[in-house]
C-alpha cells in the first residue's frame, strides 16, 4: 500500500471541495425551481394547479436525492493506463459544460472500482479509496494494479483491504450502513446481475446478502430507471424491526422510492402481528392450505337440498332444489371469482322468482318492460335480498377466514382433519383486537384472489378508471414534450401526480395500497423463511418473475420455511432460476465462526460455514449461572462504552430474562419494538434477532434453543453468528456438547469476571 503524501491529500481535498461546491449549486438551482413553482400559488385552472403540483413533486424528489448524498459523496478514484482519471461517488455530477466531475458508482465505467485486480486490472493502474469526514478528506488508500509500476514495498500487500477492514471494525449504530465504497468483487457481480429471471443468492451468515440485495435494488433502479420507477421495486424483509434496521441504506444511495415490507404487512389494510403457536403457523403456511381456502369458498356456495321459501306480503315464493342447483351450476361454470359469480347466481334466481311472482299475480304473459319492472321490485324486497344473501353471500377475505377458523364444522367441510382444526380453532375477534397473524396474511391474499372484488359495479368502475388514466397519460406526454421535460420524467408518473385533488403518491405508496400491484422487481431477504403460501402471494406480486431472493437454507428457523431453493422455486419457474453464492463472512470474527461451524454440522453434516475475513484474538466464553435472574449482572459487566449488546434467549425465557436485564441495565429493551435497535442492550428471541447484528452477543441457554424447535440447530447457528466482536454463553442447565470447549468463566461476581478488553483486530490470512 502506498502512503499518501500531504500534497496528495491536499489535492484530493481541493477536488472534493469542488464536488461539494457543485452539489451546493445544484441544490440551490433545484430549490429555486421548486420555489418558483410553488410561488405560482393555488390559482389558475384545475389543469394548471395539477401541473404545478407535478413539477413541485418532481423538484422535491430531486432535492431530497441531492441532500441524501451529503455523507461520503465521493469515495474513490480510478487512474487508467491512458492517464485518464475518474472520481467515483454516490451520484453522477457534471459541470455546466457537461464535463463529468463524478461518476455514479452504478455506471458501467465505475465497475473496475469493484472488480479490477492486479491479475485482471481492466485498464486501471490505481484504485484509490478516499476517506472523508463531513466534507474533509481524512485519508487516502491506494491499490496499485499495474504490476510494472509497483514499487517492491507495494507488491507485498496487493489486496489493499484497509478500507474494508476499517469499515468492518467500526462500532455498530443499530442501523445498517451502505457499503458503496467497499463492495467486494463477488458481491459486485451479484449487484450488477441481469434484471430478468430469478436470481437466488445463497450465502452463510454475515456474507453480505442483505447489503448486496439493497445495493442491487439501487443498481437496478439506476440502470432500468424507466421500467422500474413505473412498476416499483418491492423489498420484503422478515419483520418490521429488520425493515427499520435496513431502511436508511437506500436513501443514502439516493433512492427513496422502494417499498419495504414484510409478509405480515403485504395485504393492504391488515397487519399480521398476533403471535400464534409454531404448529398453527406451519399448518397455515403449507401449500395444501390453498385447497382448504378454495374449499371454504365453495362451501359458502352450497345450496340447500330442501326448498327455500320466501314470504312476501301477498304471496310466498319457493326456490326448489332444481332451480337452486341450476343457478349454482351456472355461477360456478362462469369461472368468475365468488363475488362476481354471485351476479350470475342472483340473475338466474331472480328470473325464476319473477316468473313465479307473475303467476301469483295472474299475469302469466308479461312484456319485457313489465317483467323487468317486476324483477326490480322483487330484487329490492327485503326477504328476497336476505334469502339471496344467505344462499350466496358477498364475502370479504376477512369474513371468509373468520368464518372458517371459528367453526370446527366449516374447517372439517373444507378438508381439515379434526386435529388440524383443533390447532387452528379460534374465537371470533373482539372489537379492536389484533386478530391476524403473519401466517394469516397469505391466506387472506389467497382468499381475495378467489373471492374477487365485491361486484361487477366495482369492476366497471375500475375499467373506467383505467381508461381515464390512459387518457391522462397521453395528455401528460404532450405536456412533457411541450415543456422539454420528456427526457427527465416519465409520462405515466407525471400523469399520476396530476390526478385530480389526489395527494401526491409515489409509486411505492400506490403499490402499498393495491393488492393486485405487479412490481417490476421483487427482492426477498431471509427468503428461506417464507412459507409455501407466502410464496404464492409474493409470486402474484411479480408476474414478470424478475426477482432476487437472498437467504441461507442453513438458517431456516420457521417450521414452514424452505428446505431447498428448488423446492421453493420449481413450482413457479421450473428449473429456470440461477444461483450465486457468497462465501466470505464480513461480520463474524473467525474465533466465533469456529464455534458456529460446529453447530452448523448439526444442521447438516455437508454444510460449509463461510470463511471469516478477520480475527480479533477474542475467544468466546461460557458461564454457568444459578438462575436466569443473574443474567442481568452478567450483561451489565459485558457492556462496552458506545457498543451495542444483544442477549439472545429461547422464546420461552424472553419475559424472565427481559425483566432481569431491564432491572440491571437502565434503558435495556426486551422483545421486538421500536426501541430494539437504538437501545444499548436488547433482549431478543432468535426469530427477532434474525438478520440483525450487534457488537456483542450473549446467548442464554443454548440447550433450550436447540430443544425448543424442530429447527433448533439452525436457530442456535443464527444466534451465534450475530456478533461483530464478542460472544458469550450463559447457561443455567447443562451446556450442549457442541459448545463443550468454550472457555469457561466464573460466576457473575467470580474471579474471572473481568471487564472486556479492546479487541486486537487483524485481517485474517486466508
Ligand atoms: N463489502 C463490504 N464492505 C463493508 N461491509 C460489508 C461488506 N459486505 C458486508 N459487509 C458488512 O457485513 C455485515 C453483514 O452483512 P449482511 O447483514 O448483509 O449479511 P447477511 O449475509 O445478510 O447475514 P445474515 O444471513 O446473518 O443475515 C454488515 O455489517 C455489512 O455491512
Set out the fold topology.
Blueprint: H1 6-39, H2 46-68, E1 74-80, E2 85-89, E3 93-94, E4 100-104, H3 112-115, E5 124-133, E6 136-144, H4 152-155, H5 162-169, H6 185-191, E7 198-203, H7 209-223, H8 225-231, E8 233-237, H9 240-246, H10 249-252, E9 259-262, H11 278-285, H12 289-299, E10 308-311, E11 316-319, H13 321-333, H14 338-360, H15 368-380, H16 382-391, H17 397-405, H18 408-413, H19 418-424, H20 440-451, H21 456-483, H22 491-498, H23 507-513, E12 521-524, H24 532-540, E13 547-551, H25 565-573, E14 577-582, E15 584-585, H26 590-603, E16 611-612, E17 614-615, E18 621-624, H27 631-638, E19 645-649, H28 654-664, E20 669-670, E21 681-685, H29 686-689, E22 694-700, H30 702-708, H31 712-720, E23 723-731, E24 743-745, E25 762-763
Parallel strand pairs: 2-4, 7-13, 7-14, 8-9, 8-12, 12-13, 15-16, 18-23, 18-24, 19-21, 19-22, 20-21, 22-23
Antiparallel strand pairs: 1-2, 1-5, 3-4, 5-6, 10-11, 17-25
Helix pairs in contact: 1-2, 2-22, 6-7, 7-8, 12-20, 13-14, 14-15, 17-20, 20-24, 21-22, 26-31, 27-28, 30-31
The protein binds adenosine-5'-triphosphate (ATP).
Adenosine-5'-triphosphate binds next to α5 and α7.
Summarize the structure in words.
InterPro entries: (+)RNA_virus_helicase_core_dom, DNA_helicase_UvrD/REP, P-loop_NTPase, UvrD-like_ATP-bd. This is PhoH family protein. It comes from Microbispora oryzae. Residues 182-589 form the UvrD-like helicase ATP-binding domain. Pfam families: Viral_helicase1 (PF01443). With 766 residues, this protein is α/β, with parallel strands linked by helices. Helix content is 44%, strand content 16%. The chain contains 31 helices and 25 strands. The strands form 6 sheets. Strands 20-21-19-22-23-18-24 form a 7-stranded parallel sheet, sandwiched between helices. A hairpin with a 4-residue loop joins strand 1 and strand 2. Helix 13 packs antiparallel against helix 14 (338-360). The longest helix is centred in the first third of the chain and has 34 residues, at 6-39. The radius of gyration is 31 Å and the shape is globular. 41% of the residues are buried. The model is unreliable at 152-160 and 750-760 (pLDDT under 50). It binds adenosine-5'-triphosphate (ATP). Adenosine-5'-triphosphate is lined by residues 164, 167-168, 179, 182-184, 187, 203, 205-211, 552, 555, 586-587, 691, 693, 721.
Amino acid at each position: 500500500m502506498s502512503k499518501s503524501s500531504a500534497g496528495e491529500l491536499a489535492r484530493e481535498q481541493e477536488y472534493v471541495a469542488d464536488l461539494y461546491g457543485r452539489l451546493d449549486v445544484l441544490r440551490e438551482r433545484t430549490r429555486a425551481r421548486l420555489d418558483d413553482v410553488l410561488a405560482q400559488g393555488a390559482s389558475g385552472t384545475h389543469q394548471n394547479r395539477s401541473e404545478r403540483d407535478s413539477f413541485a413533486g418532481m423538484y422535491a424528489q430531486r432535492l431530497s436525492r441531492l441532500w441524501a448524498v451529503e455523507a461520503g459523496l465521493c469515495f474513490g478514484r480510478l487512474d487508467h493506463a491512458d492517464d485518464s482519471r475518474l472520481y467515483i461517488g454516490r451520484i453522477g455530477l457534471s459541470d455546466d459544460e457537461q464535463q463529468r466531475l463524478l461518476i455514479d458508482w452504478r455506471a458501467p465505467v465505475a465497475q473496475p472500482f469493484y472488480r479490477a485486480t492486479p491479475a485482471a486490472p481492466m485498464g486501471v493502474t490505481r484504485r484509490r479509496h478516499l476517506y472523508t469526514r463531513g466534507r474533509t478528506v481524512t485519508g487516502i488508500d491506494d491499490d496499485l494494479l499495474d504490476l510494472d509500476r509497483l514499487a517492491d514495498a507495494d507488491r507485498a500487500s496487493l489486496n489493499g483491504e484497509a478500507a474494508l477492514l476499517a469499515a468492518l471494525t467500526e462500532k455498530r449504530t443499530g442501523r445498517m450502513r451502505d457499503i458503496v465504497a467497499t463492495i467486494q468483487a463477488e458481491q459486485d457481480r451479484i449487484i450488477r446481475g441481469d434484471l430478468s429471471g430469478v436470481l437466488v443468492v445463497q450465502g452463510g451468515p454475515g456474507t453480505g446478502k442483505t447489503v448486496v440485495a439493497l445495493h442491487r435494488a439501487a443498481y437496478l433502479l439506476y440502470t432500468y430507471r424507466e421500467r422500474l420507477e413505473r412498476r416499483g421495486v418491492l423489498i420484503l424483509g422478515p419483520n418490521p424491526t429488520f425493515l427499520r434496521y435496513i431502511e436508511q441504506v437506500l436513501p443514502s444511495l439516493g433512492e427513496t422510492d422502494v417499498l419495504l415490507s414484510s409478509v405480515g404487512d403485504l395485504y393492504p389494510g391488515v397487519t399480521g402481528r398476533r403471535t400464534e403457536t409454531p404448529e398453527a403457523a406451519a399448518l397455515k403456511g403449507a401449500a395444501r392450505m390453498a385447497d382448504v381456502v378454495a374449499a371454504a369458498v365453495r362451501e359458502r356456495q352450497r345450496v340447500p337440498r330442501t326448498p327455500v321459501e320466501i314470504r312476501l306480503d301477498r304471496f310466498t315464493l319457493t326456490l326448489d332444489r332444481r332451480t337452486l342447483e341450476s343457478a349454482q351450476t351456472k355461477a360456478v361454470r362462469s369461472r368468475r371469482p365468488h363475488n362476481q359469480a354471485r351476479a350470475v347466481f342472483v340473475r338466474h334466481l331472480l328470473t325464476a322468482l319473477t316468473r313465479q311472482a307473475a303467476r301469483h299475480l295472474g299475469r302469466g304473459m308479461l312484456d319485457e318492460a313489465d317483467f323487468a319492472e317486476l324483477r326490480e321490485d322483487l330484487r329490492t324486497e327485503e326477504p328476497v335480498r336476505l334469502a339471496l344473501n344467505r344462499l350466496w353471500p358477498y364475502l370479504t377475505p376477512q369474513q371468509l377466514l373468520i368464518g372458517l377458523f371459528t367453526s370446527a364444522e366449516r374447517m372439517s367441510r373444507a378438508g381439515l382433519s379434526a386435529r388440524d382444526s383443533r390447532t387452528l380453532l379460534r374465537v371470533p375477534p373482539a372489537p379492536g383486537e389484533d386478530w391476524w397473524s403473519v401466517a394469516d396474511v397469505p391466506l387472506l391474499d389467497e382468499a381475495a384472489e378467489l373471492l374477487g372484488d365485491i361486484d361487477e359495479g366495482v369492476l366497471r368502475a375500475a375499467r373506467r378508471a383505467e381508461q381515464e388514466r390512459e387518457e391522462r397519460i397521453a395528455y401528460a406526454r404532450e405536456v412533457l414534450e411541450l415543456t422539454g421535460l420528456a427526457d427527465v420524467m416519465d409520462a405515466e408518473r407525471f400523469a399520476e401526480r396530476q390526478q385530480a385533488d389526489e395527494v401526491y403518491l409515489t409509486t411505492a405508496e400506490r403499490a402499498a395500497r393495491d393488492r393486485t400491484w405487479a412490481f417490476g422487481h421483487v427482492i426477498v431477504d431471509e427468503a428461506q423463511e417464507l412459507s409455501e403460501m407466502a410464496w404464492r402471494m409474493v409470486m402474484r406480486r411479480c408476474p414478470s418473475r424478475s426477482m432476487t431472493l437472498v437467504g441461507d437454507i442453513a438458517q431456516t428457523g420457521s417450521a414452514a420455511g424452505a428446505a431447498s431453493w428448488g423446492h421453493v422455486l420449481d413450482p413457479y419457474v421450473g428449473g429456470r432460476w440461477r444461483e450465486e453464492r457468497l462465501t466470505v463472512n464480513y461480520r463474524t470474527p473467525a474465533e466465533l465462526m469456529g464455534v458456529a461451524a460446529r453447530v452448523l454440522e448439526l444442521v447438516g453434516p455437508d454444510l460449509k460455514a463461510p470463511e471469516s475475513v478477520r480475527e480479533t484474538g477474542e475467544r468466546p466464553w461460557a458461564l454457568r449461572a444459578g438462575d436466569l435472574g443473574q443474567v442481568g449482572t452478567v450483561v451489565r459487566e459485558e457492556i462496552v462504552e458506545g457498543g451495542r449488546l444483544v442477549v439472545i434467549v429461547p422464546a420461552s425465557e424472553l419475559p424472565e430474562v427481559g425483566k432481569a436485564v431491564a432491572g440491571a441495565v437502565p434503558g435495556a429493551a426486551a422483545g421486538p419494538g421500536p426501541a430494539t435497535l437504538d437501545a444499548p442492550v436488547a433482549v431478543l428471541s432468535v426469530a427477532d434477532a434474525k438478520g440483525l447484528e450487534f457488537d456483542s452477543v450473549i446467548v442464554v441457554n443454548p440447550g433450550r434453543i436447540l430443544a425448543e424447535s424442530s429447527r433448533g440447530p439452525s436457530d442456535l447457528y443464527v444466534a451465534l453468528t450475530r456478533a461483530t466482536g464478542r460472544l458469550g454463553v450463559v447457561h443455567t442447565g447443562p451446556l450442549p456438547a457442541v459448545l463443550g470447549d468454550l472457555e469457561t468463566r466464573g460466576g457473575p461476581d467470580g474471579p474471572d469476571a473481568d471487564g472486556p478488553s479492546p479487541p486486537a483486530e487483524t485481517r485474517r490470512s486466508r
